[in-house]
Design brief:
By secondary structure, the protein is an alpha/beta fold. It has five helices and six strands, in the order βαββαβαβαβα. It has helices at residues 35-47, 118-124, 137-150, 171-182, 189-193, and strands spanning 9-14, 51-57, 97-101, 129-135, 154-163, 185-187. Helix 3 packs parallel to helix 4. The protein is globular. The protein starts with 8 loop residues before the first strand and ends in a 9-residue tail after the last helix. The structure holds zinc ion (ZN). Zinc ion (ZN) is lined by residues 57, 59, 65, 76-77, 102.
């Protein structure tokens, strides 16, 4: 299904951070595969003057999700560290909206909407449809998509720009099915870029 991007559309890319990529402390095995395609989505939305949001884990060094604090995960995405940074190969303009989540020691957050200004910023920019990609499919992407649907946004999942951390257990496929059952619409770059008002800028 081709999609004609219009005013009121926004791109949200979830947790594209070094620690979630190969070489990071909590790596999605093939997470780096989506960097080029996500860069294309970003360039396309930017060329159409549409809002772009980037969520990121931004944890204090003693965050509750870390094993040293009794949590289930290795330390990752510690605020202002290399692991928390966006990968150098991900291309995006400097005026995107960066949404930091799980920024306090006591609380974790899988959704980009949890205790962040994301919903308010989307509402104030007139957003009605969101297009969501990033990492990892069955955790932060899934929960961000579920919240977007709950909050009333028409929600598209960028099926070619997500990757699962547990690909061997089909966690990503199950998450995609769950998102679709809830009302999210899977799409891909060719469908989104087919009805361009401007030439594709690459
Ligand atoms: Zn985290």
């Amino acid at each position: 299904m081709k999609i004609n991007l219009t005013a009121g559309d926004a791109l949200i890319f979830v947790d594209m951070q070094n620690d979630f990529l190969p070489g990071g402390s909590l790596a999605v095995p093939s997470g780096n595969e989506i960097i080029p395609i996500l860069s294309r989505y970003i360039a396309f939305f930017h060329a159409h003057g549409l809002a772009i949001f980037a969520t990121r884990d931004w944890h204090p060094p003693d965050h509750c999700s870390f094993m040293q604090q009794g949590g289930p995960l290795p330390p990752h995405c510690i605020e202002a560290s290399w692991g928390a940074a966006f990968p150098a190969s991900l291309e995006f303009p400097c005026d995107i909206n960066i949404i930091s989540k799980a920024t306090t020691r006591e609380k974790d957050a899988y959704s980009g909407f949890t205790d962040t200004p994301l919903n308010g910023l989307l509402k104030s920019s007139g957003t009605e449809r969101v297009f969501i990609g990033g990492l990892a499919t069955e955790y932060c992407v899934l929960n961000t998509v579920k919240d977007a649907l709950r909050l009333g946004y028409a929600t598209y999942i960028l099926a070619d720009a997500v990757r699962a951390i547990n690909s061997s257990s089909n966690g990503g496929l199950h998450a995609l099915e769950e998102m679709e059952d809830l009302g999210a619409v899977p799409t891909h770059f060719e469908a989104v870029s087919a009805c361009a008002r401007f030439p594709v800028p690459f």
